[in-house]
Design brief:
It comes from Rotaria socialis. The protein is α/β, with parallel strands linked by helices and about 900 residues long. The chain has 31 helices and 25 strands. The chain folds into four domains: about 300 residues, Alpha/Beta hydrolase fold, catalytic domain (Rossmann fold, 3-Layer(aba) Sandwich), CATH 3.40.50; about 90 residues, no CATH class; about 220 residues, no CATH class; about 220 residues, Rossmann fold (3-Layer(aba) Sandwich).
């Protein structure tokens, strides 16, 4: 893919002008000038050295809502772009198009015609219109709206014939063709593009426009048209609406049906599932209206107040069998045949005029002069809508535009069918090509693959990189649904905990240094040296980035955060601040850094913990091994708030002096240790405890939640506002407990439950439930410290149920929600509606949340405690549901636990160079 990154230098000879209303032909009335030409602009493109292939682009950008639809108008022989605005039939077409909320672009050749019979590869009109349109799209449309439009074609006469060629090189979503049924050979040639790429060009309108107008405009690549010797890299055949007018003297209905049959016979290869649909190729038979005097007065504005002229023309069209020598003949002499006819008919036959009075003769002379003056406009009106020959047609324009909307809905359905039927495609940038050169060999131990800080809780960044380096999920970035940005920002920031003794200002400067000199250049390279950032309408929304620290992207300044606002974060921290009142204070604020999390847009994933490789005894004696009810060891002064869970737990450091009996089994009620303990003691203590207390710290997340699950304990979460990993898919209530921080003093009652008689069964049930989802919090990763063996995932047969499985499920859902309109602005009506629609329509991918949010809910807690406010002056005694033993506390017997751990603990010690836990 290296040649993708070679930018091609394109030089364009452009002349830019705006329409000067004063230069419009004087035949237009002033009212019509202001009505039809408003917002109309013109640019001229002279990219080709041959002046025969210079083009006028006349356009109106009239976007009224969030849709970006542009219709390209191709006229017939000798037709100029302005004709669409000056001819009454053209104005009817434009009016219908505007009413359907399309922007309008008319393209005309300097020759007033197109090379409609020359094959695509040799066709200079196709080539130079394609290249001119690339320039216009970027200089005009993208410059105005910062996204590319959905493109449609509307062709009449020879423009319709030429559309059959042009639609094979442009991302045309649908086309409407009048008079000619398109270029037969051009619309029946298969493309040699890869089937998956063809499918994406067919179903993904945003990608298709980006591919032609951004990727192939700025990059040199052999898949792009007119950039290599390869041929037949054509776009798929778009759905087509053919209009056959029964008056047409040049074509029969069979000419259309022959072409349609040829396309249908090969529809899947020419245009995939979209073209294969029965509605994608439509033939409409149109019957022109009768040219009555009243019809002419209504539609030909020059005769709006000249009934006599309309009547005379009608008589001419109807014919006159009144010649003296033809009184007995059935022949009717007609004087208007879509070309310059003899409009002095009556002068040549004075016998007809001799009965006319002076007024009638004056009206005829006026009529004859109008015919000569407005011949072209009159020809369009009658040879178009009334004759159906070589002209603009407004017949059935409303029906055709309605059909286009139906095709848009069809493409929407086909795109989702394709997405749901295949695996998610993620492509990762090569980190070595992103990292600034000065940092590639700088502080090698700061890389996440070596960093041991915090029991390797930052290692998930490295694991993600290893996974996608080893995965061949998608080799072609042009097919990717998401692009992963690898980086080690947090590992650089927290390298060797150098920041510990920093003041807030020093820490801010420390973070700012690595953000601006290490991280920002990575993002800049992605934005400017690779083309994929703008592949979607919202730049960066198809990108993923993992932030493995507790602030997510909150460590970045506002400018960088705004730059990454569309990127989906993978991080360990989720906070439901959206459930709080607007004036509520920040829940977690440390060193003036807020947690950045957009619920339903970002994804919470668990950190890596080495305990995931330990196998715990799951036999029936598992419960009997438990010696302690509640356990916590860690730093209490780990939050700025005096009312944080850790600060409140300090009241439990003085251990209760009695054992507690629950259903014939004795437990030490609670052990709370302020500070570090040796690693082996810490692990054994977790294994021997029923519950592991998992309080908040500087942020709501904690690796203890996952250590508890991995070591056979039940996590008791003490954190307000927390979002747990994969809540949409995993029933956290079934294997964990959660208590709001304000109720910490009721923790014993909460843990024991309302009825101690079923305590053992309840605990075993939670353990069984945890066993079902244990791999959801495991990365199943093996890191060789000595680098004698490559990092790898183990065991291979379990990879399908590990963390990545659930990340993919989350991203599948995000993709659907983004497609339906969701964005980083989770409170916008578009985002809310998109999430609701996704969970209703695609519930098997995005299951609707039925339960209360976990964030501020304390589940499994009795109603009598739900609103209780505890005093902070003393520890609440255990309830009488548990029988207290009056004998003094005895040392805990850990022999059985040590036996269970055995060699596994020794193996873990080899993995852990750090001997302490936080």
């Amino acid at each position: 893919m290296s040649n993708i990154l070679e930018a091609s230098n394109q030089s364009h000879s452009l002349i830019h002008t705006k329409v000067d209303v004063q230069t419009i032909p004087t035949i237009l009335e002033a009212s019509n000038q202001s009505h039809w030409l408003i917002h109309t602009q013109v640019k001229y493109y002279t990219l080709s050295p041959n002046s025969s292939y210079h083009y006028e682009f006349r356009y109106q950008l009239l976007k009224k809502d969030s849709s970006h639809r542009l219709i390209l108008l191709l006229g017939g022989h000798k037709r100029k772009c302005i004709d669409w605005w000056t001819f009454s039939v053209g104005r009817r077409i434009l009016s219908a198009i505007r009413s359907s909320n399309y922007s309008i672009l008319s393209v005309c050749s300097a020759r007033s015609t197109f090379d409609h019979n020359i094959p695509i590869e040799e066709n200079q009109d196709v080539k130079w219109i394609y290249k001119s349109l690339q320039v216009w799209m970027n200089d005009v449309y993208y410059a105005k709206y910062e996204q590319y439009p959905l493109l449609y074609l509307y062709g009449v006469s020879r423009g319709s014939h030429f559309a059959g060629l042009l639609c094979r090189v442009l991302p045309v979503r649908a086309q409407i063709l009048y008079i000619y049924p398109g270029y037969f050979e051009g619309m029946t040639i298969r493309s040699v593009l890869d089937r998956d790429l063809q499918t994406r060009l067919i179903v993904d309108s945003t990608f298709s426009s980006w591919f032609h107008f951004k990727f192939c405009y700025t990059m040199t690549f052999d898949l792009c048209l007119f950039q290599s010797n390869k041929i037949s890299n054509f776009s798929p055949v778009p759905p087509t609406y053919f209009v056959h007018v029964v008056n047409d003297k040049k074509l029969n209905e069979s000419d259309y049906t022959r072409l349609i049959a040829a396309i249908k016979d090969d529809s899947y290869e020419l245009g995939g599932l979209v073209l294969n649909d029965t509605e994608s190729l439509k033939l409409h038979i149109s019957f022109p209206p009768n040219a009555t005097p009243s019809y002419m007065q209504e539609h030909f504005y020059q005769w709006r107040h000249k009934l006599h002229a309309s009547e005379l023309l009608y008589e001419h069209l109807s014919g006159f069998p009144k010649l003296p020598e033809q009184q007995n003949s059935e022949y009717k002499f007609q004087t208007f045949w879509c070309h310059r006819g003899d409009f002095t008919f009556f002068e040549r036959y004075p016998s007809i005029m001799q009965t006319w009075n002076e007024k009638q003769q004056e009206e005829y002379r006026e009529y004859s002069n109008d015919i000569k003056t407005f011949h072209e406009q009159l020809t369009e009106e009658f040879c178009g809508d009334l004759r159906g020959q070589h002209a603009m047609l407004s017949l059935d324009i409303e029906g055709a535009l309605f059909w286009v909307s139906e095709i848009d809905s069809l493409r929407h359905r086909v795109k989702m069918q394709n997405f749901l039927s295949r695996p998610l495609r993620i492509w990762m940038y090569n980190k070595e090509s992103l990292v600034p050169e000065r940092y590639r060999n700088h502080h090698i131990k700061a890389n996440c693959s070596h960093n041991l800080y915090g029991n390797e809780m930052y290692s998930s960044e490295h694991i993600i990189q290893v996974y996608f380096n080893q995965s061949s999920y998608v080799g072609n970035p042009l097919l990717a649904d998401y692009f992963l940005i690898p980086h080690d920002l947090y590992c650089f920031i927290f390298f060797h905990q150098l920041f510990v003794n920093f003041t807030d200002e020093q820490f801010k400067a420390h973070v700012s240094h690595y953000s601006n000199h290490y991280f920002e250049p990575i993002i800049d390279r992605i934005r400017y040296e690779f083309p994929y950032w703008t592949m979607t309408d919202k730049p960066g929304s198809n990108h993923l980035i993992a932030f493995v620290g507790g602030r997510n992207m909150g460590v970045l300044d506002n400018r960088l955060q705004d730059l990454l606002k569309n990127v989906i974060q993978l991080g360990p921290t989720g906070v439901r601040q959206d459930l709080l009142s607007q004036n509520a204070p920040e829940l977690y604020l440390h060193r003036n850094l807020s947690i950045v999390y957009r619920h339903g847009y970002d994804i919470v994933a668990p950190p890596f913990t080495p305990t995931e490789i330990i196998e715990i005894n799951t036999s029936n004696d598992w419960y009997q091994m438990k010696k302690r009810l509640l356990y916590f060891a860690g730093i209490f002064n780990h939050s700025l708030s005096s009312k944080s869970a850790r600060r409140l737990l300090f009241a439990f450091t003085k251990n209760l002096s009695s054992l507690i009996r629950i259903e014939k089994k004795e437990f030490h009620p609670i052990t709370v240790v302020d500070g570090h303990v040796p690693m082996q003691e810490y692990l054994e203590s977790i294994v021997s405890s029923v519950f592991l207390l998992c309080p908040e710290g500087y942020s709501p997340w904690t690796p203890r939640i996952y250590e508890a699950i991995n070591l056979g304990s039940i996590p008791l979460i003490l954190s307000d506002g927390i979002v747990l990993p994969f809540e949409r898919f995993i029933p956290w209530r079934s294997f964990s407990l959660k208590l709001n921080v304000s109720n910490v003093y009721n923790i014993l009652d909460f843990a024991i439950g309302n009825s101690s008689s079923n305590f053992e069964e309840r605990i075993k049930r939670k353990k069984r439930n945890a066993q079902r989802y244990m791999n959801a919090f495991r990365w199943l990763f093996k890191n060789d410290r000595n680098k004698k063996k490559p990092d790898r995932f183990i065991p291979e047969e379990d990879v399908k149920t590990n963390v990545f499985h659930y990340i993919y499920r989350e991203l599948k859902c995000r993709y659907i929600e983004q497609f339906l309109g969701a964005s980083w602005d989770i409170f916008s009506s578009a985002s809310i509606n998109a999430r609701q629609q996704a969970c209703v329509t695609y519930s098997h991918i995005c299951p609707c949340t039925i339960e209360q949010p976990i964030a501020f809910d304390q589940y499994n807690y009795g109603k009598q405690h739900s609103h209780k406010q505890s005093s902070t002056s003393s520890v609440k005694a255990p309830s009488t549901k548990a029988v207290l033993n009056t004998k003094k506390l005895k040392p805990i017997d850990l022999n059985s636990t040590i036996v269970v751990l055995g060699k596994l603990v020794k193996k873990l010690n080899k993995l852990l160079e750090a001997k302490t836990t936080i």
